[in-house]
Amino acid sequence: MPTRVPDSEFQDRLAAVRDRIDDAGADAGVWFGATSIEYLTGFDHIQTERPVVLAVTDDRVAVTVPRLEVERVETNPRIDAVHHYFDYPGGDPVETAAGMLSELGVESVAADADGAPGVMGYEGPKLSSFVEVESQNWVSRMRWAKSDAEVELVRESARWGNLAHRYLADFTEVGEHPATVSQRASLEASRAMLDALGDEYVPRTRGDGPAMAGFITGEQTALPHGHTANRRLQEGDVLVTGASADVDGYRSELERTMFLGEPDDEQAHYFELMLEAQTVAIDALGPGVELSYVDEQVWDFFEEQGVADLARHHVGHNIGLGAHEPPYIDRGWTTHCAEQDGREDRDAEMEPGHIYTIEPGIYTDEYGYRHSDTIAITEDGVDWLTYFPRDLESNTIRAE
């Protein structure tokens, strides 16, 4: 029951980027992206208008943070030095980071960006105003394939996401409001998760619980990213659910199409087509398989069934520290890889350690139909991480 990234993982990750820094002939690697900084050091923060800048050399790890993050980061055992500015725009974030690099004896860097991202109104100088900058996306690429430890963290997320989804199904009934049903399911699953894990749970939330579940209903389901409708549940409603849990920053994705009461023939028909499309996709998964091929198999199935016009998105995406991560199971992925500088042929293929959401959907004018399961690619096949039942009977909620 793993609940946190082991120290050895961070050692391996830092060693890997140090090899890349050496190969690039740079004095240091620099990262502005919050997820990359978390991946390399375990320091998680909310990316705002206040930049955080990580620098890694062959023997040191240093970070520049706003004053309000100093206490959170200075105890991190993987960071040797903490530099800070007061705030933005009252401080000088990139200038402070340049001073950090100067103190490290750095004149050239390989960076994930030439300056802090312009989020929440931030505007500031380029890093190349102070040091020589070469671009790199090493960490983004490293995150495609998960280690065994990361796969187990996603599996643990799926376990608690499954519980949250079970509560969601149990609490769903005519007359309830979708928002409060979702909140109740998330609360009960979070309570169980916190009680079970105790001190082993790594806090990653600010007010929200670690497990969550919810759904959209009725006409909103016809929109792949529909919103929770402000109306109470009714007999005959179609629901598209979602559940997950945060385990040291890692997450899974579980979605189901459910019916509140007996589905009519048309609803059952589209449900079964969606379910078969998901099965087609899962059967096509495996190491060495082109991602484009999997999406093409589903598209061919949709065309054979005469419902290709009801598709709204590709089959799925990688998942881990991010809810959506590359690579993507998309018909255009092979072409995309061929057009990107530095991409290799293998970048177009699935490989062991990739973890995908498999979620082909069908969307009529009235309702949407989509399951999503989280599945890891192994050396010789696949490993299902989510496990809530997929069949129609198990996803029909009837009044007792």
Task: Describe, in plain words, how this protein is organized in 3D.
By secondary structure, the protein is of the alpha/beta class. 33% of the residues lie in helices and 18% in strands. The protein has 10 helices and 17 strands. The strands form 5 sheets. A 6-stranded mixed β-sheet has the order 4-3-2-1-5-6, sandwiched between helices. Helix 6 packs across helix 7 and helix 8 packs antiparallel against helix 9. The longest helix is centred in the middle third of the chain and has 24 residues. It is globular and about 70 Å long. The model has no long low-confidence stretch (mean pLDDT 96). This is Xaa-Pro peptidase family protein. InterPro entries: Creatin/AminoP/Spt16_N, Creatinase/aminopeptidase-like, Creatinase_N, Pept_M24, Peptidase_M24B.
List the helices and strands and how they pair.
Layout: H1 7-24, E1 28-31, H2 34-41, E2 53-56, E3 61-66, H3 70-73, E4 81-85, H4 93-103, E5 108-111, E6 132-135, H5 138-142, H6 148-171, H7 178-197, E7 211-217, E8 238-245, E9 257-260, H8 265-284, H9 291-305, E10 316-318, E11 325-329, H10 333-339, E12 355-358, E13 361-363, E14 368-370, E15 373-377, E16 382-384, E17 396-397
Helix pairs in contact: 6-7, 8-9
